[in-house]
């Protein structure tokens, strides 16, 4: 009788131990599956980032010419300076001129850029004509107009006209009257050129006097105040209608002669900057 009770007890103990082991195994499997899902879904879509994180994702556009030198390929470098993994739908990039689409992405699929990582999308746009690049007002848009990730300034710069020196005539005339006539004509031409230069200078001076932003440091000051970013500024170059700013990390901005600031896909008017509760006020003298 005692032997029978011992056997029954031993069997019961083995059954209970087996159930406990199975439950622990199922629990570990469940936890492992949860971790895998968490890691898979950790990357966040760029469009869902806050403004602060978006400012720390830098975009830089470069171009390569086709052999016929008429069309270009544009590549995009993405530098993720945030602490988050970020993903992009490659098919959702567009090359825009204002509200007009000039080119669509040639790529498909999802690109994940990990925190602190830099990736290059080669030939994101193909067969972009020189006319499009020279037309100005170009930007790269992701998904919609709320996500302007880069301003594109890759057009050919207008050549500065050079003033040629008059050729010296080897056969110098000894005729005094001819020399006098030549001198008189030269003086008249010089006077005409001086008058023309004076008119040009006056027009340029008048245009500059009407501008609110006249210097690079003024453009940089308005850019910093409009973005609330007082870290390292941009390098500013005078262009038609305002100042173009570019950073070493690929960031860009535009400050118009009237003081409006365009950066990160948004435009802040000069009046908004002047009347801001913090860091407000007119352009620095």
Automatic annotation (TrEMBL):
Biased composition (Polar residues): 200-209
Chain residue ranges for the region called Disordered: 22-51, 159-211
Residue ranges, compositional bias (Basic and acidic residues): 33-42
Biased composition (Low complexity): 22-32, 167-199
Protein's name according to its UniProt entry: Lipoprotein
Organism: Companilactobacillus versmoldensis DSM 14857 = KCTC 3814
């Amino acid at each position: 009788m005692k032997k029978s009770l011992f056997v029954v007890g031993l069997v019961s103990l083995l059954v209970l131990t087996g159930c406990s082991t199975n439950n622990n195994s199922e629990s570990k499997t469940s936890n492992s599956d949860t971790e895998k899902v968490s890691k898979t879904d950790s990357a966040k879509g760029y469009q869902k980032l806050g403004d602060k994180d978006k400012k720390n994702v830098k975009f830089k556009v470069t171009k390569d010419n086709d052999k016929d030198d008429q069309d270009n390929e544009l590549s995009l470098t993405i530098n993720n300076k945030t602490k988050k993994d970020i993903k992009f739908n490659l098919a959702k990039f567009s090359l825009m001129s204002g509200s007009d689409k000039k080119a669509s992405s040639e790529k498909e699929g999802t690109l994940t850029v990990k925190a602190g990582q830099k990736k290059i999308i080669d030939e994101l746009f193909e067969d972009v004509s020189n006319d499009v690049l020279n037309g100005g007002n170009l930007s790269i848009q992701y998904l919609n107009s709320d996500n302007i990730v880069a301003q594109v300034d890759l057009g050919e710069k207008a050549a500065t006209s050079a003033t040629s020196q008059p050729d010296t005539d080897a056969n110098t005339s000894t005729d005094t009257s001819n020399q006098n006539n030549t001198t008189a004509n030269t003086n008249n031409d010089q006077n005409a050129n001086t008058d023309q230069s004076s008119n040009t200078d006056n027009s340029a001076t008048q245009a500059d006097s009407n501008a609110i932003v006249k210097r690079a440091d003024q453009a940089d000051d308005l850019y910093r105040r409009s973005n609330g970013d007082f870290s390292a500024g941009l390098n500013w170059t005078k262009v038609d209608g305002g100042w173009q700013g570019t950073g070493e990390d690929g960031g860009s901005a535009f400050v118009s002669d009237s003081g409006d600031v365009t950066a990160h896909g948004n435009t802040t008017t000069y009046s908004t900057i002047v009347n801001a509760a913090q860091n407000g006020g007119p352009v620095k003298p």
